[in-house]
Specification:
Layout lengths: L1 H7 L3 H7 L1 E4 L9 H4 L1 H6 L11 E3 L4 H14 L7 E4 L12 H6 L3 H17 L4 E2 L23 H16 L8 E7 L18 H8 L1 H8 L4 E4 L3 E2 L2 E2 L4 H11 L5 E3 L7 H5 L5 H10 L5 E2 L3 H11 L5 H18 L11 H7 L3 H14 L1 E5 L12 E4 L24 H9 L3 E4 L14 H10 L2 E7 L18 H13 L3 E6 L7 H6 L2 E6 L5 H9 L68 E8 L3 E2 L5 E9 L5 E11 L10 E10 L4 E8 L6 E2 L5 E2 L3 E8 L8 E5 L1
Parallel strand pairs: 1-2, 1-10, 2-3, 3-4, 4-5, 5-6, 6-9, 12-13, 12-14, 14-15, 15-16, 18-26
Antiparallel strand pairs: 7-8, 11-16, 17-19, 19-22, 20-21, 20-25, 23-24, 25-26
Helix pairs in contact: 1-15, 2-14, 2-15, 7-8, 7-17, 8-10, 13-14, 17-22, 18-22, 19-20
Bound molecules: beta-D-glucopyranose (BGC).
């Protein structure tokens, strides 16, 4: 086989350099300057081997790829084709909504199709691997990277992970790319929601909540795994043998490529876990990490470690072989340029078809958080005052925009014009800065509001207030935005708020003030069209949040699938003070909006709840079912949710756990039966002895519109 043959022909130095990942930039100049300047100078790599590295990162542009690869192959002695890897997070050139939004669609096919679209665009630019899906479970909205995640539920994250992996990889054809699930593991557990911060949790919590989404990606055939910056049980993931070798490879059977995060090997020194780069290289190799992204520990020290007998050539060979096998599968040995195509890229990327799919994605991701009946607006509306810092900007397509361009993003103003023409008038009202105190634009906006029939306020965050390194200690709307809203309400009560944010915000006050709130997240390239379509009912909201919205930051972490306590506060007492229960003096326990919550313009009636039996043997399955009827005025989609509670366990069990969901579409008056099959596997958990088993006993069953639904039946596992 080709990979093995190539390995056999490589010298030890060539093998070691094959484990290094450099930026594509390095190879865009041929005069050597890029190799020794900038971040590369810190690497101190041997110039002789710089053209022998195995993989490159960060690439957008077909011509850029062709230039870089041509230079690379000209400079290389061995000429083993490098592959290009890139952050394809929520689209490549055409952006779809941030992943927290896509998850809110509760639509696996949509997640799949969006990833497939991104893969096609990326492959035409010469990208072969997407550093996605990011499946870190999240419970703290301060963390900027919640936008990349599917939220707080292990099952939902796993389903979205699998759908995304399959969308990227397909049958590994021309327009497919390999997926790289990240950040293994538990990066989302960063204390205080501060990026790169300490993660500390029990093995039980790790296995029960945080690991399943990565495993779901592995089970779906993901080709690569990226380890995280953080520690798990005191050891940085990059050098965490237990996590990578024992669990990922031996327990889950993953035999693909493991890559570090950006310079994360070297950061083990900053963590205080390694003396020097040599120790970093040793621990990473022991953990079976294959590719070192943007730090030089392997390149500078693996040889020494081999000479000292600390690691073996076999370990290095195994790592190189895994990379070569991936390359073989990608077909780059037959054709180093793979699917890159300048003309086709120009034609396909951000073309009408991709815009249409991205728009569907944005429409189905949006969540209607509140509606007193003002929405949808009639297209015959006389005039709309479109106000707010997010109304007339392309900077709402979301952080991690990769190849997405602000000037290709449809603003909300443009979206409204596309539907009601010049009956929309615009005033900015205030700026978007989180610390802005500038009220000078409010008067103009209020004047406009007083002259129009309806006001739509585009509030929220700037797109770069979430994403990597963008964390917030305050997740409320800025005071100036509230002032704007209050002043507008004084002159016009017909107000709709379109919220743009990369995270759940603490918006209790907004919920009190605004007649309607539509959470658009950060909706991608077709932002404005999607927003306008939803507001004028060209599309019907069907998204449901996958991360709890707290009333106030002080409730964080707040998530639906929490363990029970010995002194629970009864739900009916939520707003009362009941001392000596698990509760607050000054705040209910319930969130502002719970997991799974989202409204529609129509109404769905749930009836005929059934469970096929009240006892289940281990080799049997049960069926839970419900009839759902559209009793409202619009054809629309609904995410039907299925939860189970394990009533008694050898260790405490969550209040309830999502075990299934189905996104259905119903015409006006139409009814459908939705079924969920209960299997023994669904009931398994890490018990007292840390065995993954289902224990005999009682289980309660819930089907409903959101995570507040009540149990309607129970069964016994015997
Ligand atoms: C991020 C990763 C990303 C990598 C490469 C890191 O800073 O944590 O998610 O894939 O950079 O761009």
């Amino acid at each position: 086989m080709k990979a093995q043959e190539i390995l056999n022909g490589m010298t030890l130095d060539e093998k070691i350099y094959h484990l290094v990942q450099m930026t594509t930039m390095t190879y865009l100049k041929t005069d050597g300057t890029n190799i020794v300047t900038g971040p590369n100078s810190r690497m101190q790599l041997d110039k002789e081997y710089i053209y022998e590295v195995g993989t490159l990162l960060n690439l957008v542009g077909a011509q850029t790829m062709i230039d870089a690869l041509t230079n690379f192959l000209n400079g290389s002695k061995k000429k083993v084709t490098p592959v290009f890897m890139q952050d394809v997070i929520h689209g490549h050139r055409t952006l779809y909504p941030i992943n927290l939004g896509v998850a809110a669609s509760f639509n696996r096919e949509l997640a799949h199709d969006l990833a497939a679209m991104a893969a096609k665009e990326a492959s035409l630019d010469g990208v072969s691997v997407a550093f996605a899906p990011m499946v870190d479970l999240v419970r703290d909205p301060r963390w900027g990277r919640v936008m990349e995640s599917s939220g707080e539920d292990p099952y939902l994250n796993g389903e979205m992970a699998a759908a995304t992996v399959k969308g990227f990889q397909g049958d590994m054809g021309k327009y497919n790319i390999a997926a790289c699930v990240k950040h293994y593991a538990a990066y989302g557990g960063a204390e205080a929601g501060r990026d790169y911060n300490t993660v500390d949790m029990s093995e039980r919590t790790l296995r029960q909540y945080y690991l399943p989404p990565y495993k779901a990606a592995v089970d779906a055939g993901v080709k690569m795994v990226m380890t995280a910056f953080n520690i798990v049980d005191g050891v940085p993931c990059s050098g965490n043998k237990w996590l990578v070798k024992d669990i990922l490879r031996d327990e889950w059977g993953f035999d693909g490529v493991v890559i570090s995060d950006y310079s994360a090997f070297e950061e083990m020194i900053d963590h205080g876990n390694c003396q020097d780069r040599k120790e970093c290289a040793y621990l990473a190799m022991e953990a079976t990490e294959d590719i070192e992204m943007m730090s030089p520990c392997y390149a500078l020290y693996l040889k020494e470690l081999i000479n000292e007998g600390k690691i073996t050539i076999k370990q290095v060979d195994d790592a190189v072989l895994r990379i070569l096998k991936l390359k073989e599968e990608l077909g780059v040995f037959e054709n180093p340029y793979r699917s890159v195509n300048v003309e086709e890229a120009a034609r396909v990327q951000v073309g009408p078809e991709h815009r249409a799919l991205a728009r569907c994605g944005a429409e189905e991701s949006a969540v209607l958080l509140k509606n007193n009946g003002i929405l949808p607006l009639s297209k015959d509306v006389k005039s709309v005052a479109l106000i707010g810092p997010n109304a007339n900007t392309g900077e709402i397509h979301g952080s991690w925009h990769c190849g997405g361009k602000i000037d290709e993003t449809i603003t909300v103003l443009e979206g409204f014009k596309n539907i009601i023409g010049d009956r929309v008038k615009y005033a900015k009202g205030c700026d978007i800065l989180y610390n802005s105190t500038d009220e000078s634009m409010i008067d103009e906006a209020v004047k406009l509001a007083s002259e129009c029939e309806v006001c739509v306020l585009c509030l929220g965050e700037h797109q770069e207030y979430s994403g990597e390194g963008n964390c917030r200690a305050n997740i409320e709307l800025p005071e100036v935005q509230y002032k704007l809203l209050e002043k507008v309400l004084e002159v016009n009560k017909n107000v709709v708020v379109a919220l743009f944010a990369g995270r759940p915000l603490a918006i209790s006050k907004l919920d009190e003030l605004a007649p309607a709130i539509l959470d658009m997240w950060m909706p991608g390239t077709e932002a404005g069209n999607a927003c306008a379509n939803l507001i004028f009912a060209n599309a019907i909201p069907s998204g449901k949040i996958t991360m709890t919205f707290p009333r106030e930051l002080g409730q964080v972490p707040i998530y639906y699938n929490a363990y029970r306590t010995g002194r629970p506060k009864l739900e009916e007492d939520d707003f009362n003070r009941v001392r000596f229960t698990s509760s607050y003096l000054d705040m209910p326990n319930s969130p502002l909006y719970p997991f799974g919550y989202g409204l529609s313009y129509t109404d769905f009636e749930y009836s005929d709840f059934k469970l096929s039996a009240s006892k289940m043997k281990r080799d049997e399955t049960l069926v839970a079912s419900v009839k759902v009827k559209n009793v409202g005025k619009y054809k629309a989609k609904e995410a039907v949710q299925f939860y189970i509670r394990d009533v008694v366990g050898s260790v405490v069990r969550p209040m309830k756990e999502l075990k299934g969901f189905e996104k259905i579409e119903l015409d006006i008056g139409e009814e459908k039966t939705v079924e969920f099959t209960i299997t023994e596997d669904m009931l398994k958990f890490w018990n007292k002895d840390m065995d993954f088993v289902a224990e005999n006993g009682k289980f309660e069953v819930f089907i409903g519109k959101d995570s507040r639904c009540k149990p309607y039946a129970s069964f016994e596992l015997v």
